[in-house]
Amino acid sequence: MSLLKCDKVKSSLKKKGVCTISGRQKHVVYTFCHKGELQAISTHMSHNNQEINDFLQKEMAKQMPLTKSEFIEFIKCNITKEDLIDKYAEMDLIQ
Fold it and tell me: What are φ and ψ of residue 57, in 5° steps?
C-alpha cells in the first residue's frame, strides 16, 4: 500500500484541467473541465490535508473513472491531460 501526499494529488489534478469547486461543502470537489466547460467527471477530497490511503485512492479512481493504477500514474504525471481527454472521449464521457 502506498500513500499519496494530499498536496501532490491537488497539484496534479489542477495541472490537468480539473477545476476546484469549494464552498461550504464538507469536501472540496474537483471537476474535470474540457473546452471551458465543467464535465460530469469529478472527485472530492477532505479539507484536512491527510495522506490518501489505498482505499481512498481506489474510490477517487472510480469517481474519475480510472483504474487505481491509472489514477496513480495520472497523479505522478505519467498520464497527460491529452491522454485523459482521449480516454474520456473513447468512453463517450466528453465530446
Answer: -60, -45
